[in-house]
Amino acid sequence: MNRLPTIISTSARSPRLLHTTTMGSSSRVQLVSPQEVQAQGLGKYRVLDSSFHLPNSGRSALDDFRRGPRLPGARLFDHDLVADRSYTLPNSPVKLGHMLPDIHTFKLHAQLLGIARNDHLLLYDSLGLFSAPRAAWLFNAYGHPNISVLDGGLPRWIHEKCPVETGAPSPPPEPSEYVLSGFPEAHAREKVVSYDAIVQNFTKTPTEDELPAMGETYRRLLGPEDCQKVFLNALDNHAPTWELLINGQKKVVVSCGSGLSACILWLALHLYHPNAIVLLYDESWTGYALRNDAPIISLSA
């Protein structure tokens, strides 16, 4: 198994957490159930199908959306379009999709989706809870005030017999006026860390601020009252560091294959530890490994 030199993993080698700065935002994200949405009425929301499928999955989010089923009135949020397209240029050191776009690209696609700044967004995906958190992270990074993620996504929506659409979707909406005046792009940029920052981080003292993530054999289900105790036991003498993280006194960086599923971790911390400062290594493992000079630790299985 290969990994970055400083990342939370299931190996015995402990990582360090990155020290960077970030700015707060009034934007908050909430998790809502299908029944909560039904009780409020879909008309309260601007619904975005935020599905994404990995290249080897044999599925297309666009084809699935066009065919249905989908939530009534949903519009498709394309992660690879609402992105920094410079990563696709020939001179880019790494070729990646769905990286954080600049403010003009973000605003343009929000307008093309017919979104207004005061719209309450409802984001879902077709796998349950996979790529919708990435869309939530992006809108949160640009300070969109009202964002909800559908708990369980389309599968749960269908399972609970909520209404769906099939066949050709509605025509594209009229472009909206998405107002971002007074919102600096720097606020969004401070939600991510770069490759250079990752490399700089692990050149520091390797034993400072480490949290282990040892894999343990699954044994039994735990009741809610046991969960906090078990997690603290797993952290052992690192519990004080965990307390610093969830209280926002230290920062934590989340990472994955390409900066998408790591946003599930971001969402969990955002929901349950709102004071935590959670940053995303947007390029994640794919961008890191594509760089010829990137230090990589190889571990035996």
SSE inventory with pairings:
Elements: E1 2-3, E2 28-32, H1 34-40, E3 45-49, H2 61-67, E4 75-76, H3 103-112, E5 120-124, H4 132-141, E6 146-150, H5 153-159, H6 185-189, E7 192-193, H7 195-201, H8 224-235, H9 239-246, E8 251-254, H10 262-272, E9 277-281, H11 284-289, E10 297-298
Parallel strand pairs: 2-6, 3-4, 3-5, 5-6, 7-9, 8-9
Antiparallel strand pairs: 1-10
What does the model show?
This is Rhodanese domain-containing protein. This protein has about 300 residues and is an alpha/beta fold. The chain has two domains: about 1-20 and about 190-300, Oxidized Rhodanese, domain 1 (3-Layer(aba) Sandwich), CATH 3.40.250; about 30-185, Rhodanese-like domain (Oxidized Rhodanese, domain 1, 3-Layer(aba) Sandwich), CATH 3.40.250.10. Helix content is about 30%, strand content about 10%. It contains eleven helices and ten strands. Strands 2-6-5-3-4 form a five-stranded parallel sheet, sandwiched between helices. Helix 4 (about 130-140) crosses helix 10. It is globular and about 55 Å long. The termini are close together. Residues about 5-25 and about 210-215 have low confidence and may be disordered.
Keywords:
301 residues; alpha/beta; Oxidized Rhodanese, domain 1; 2 domains; five-stranded parallel sheet; three-stranded parallel sheet; 11 helices
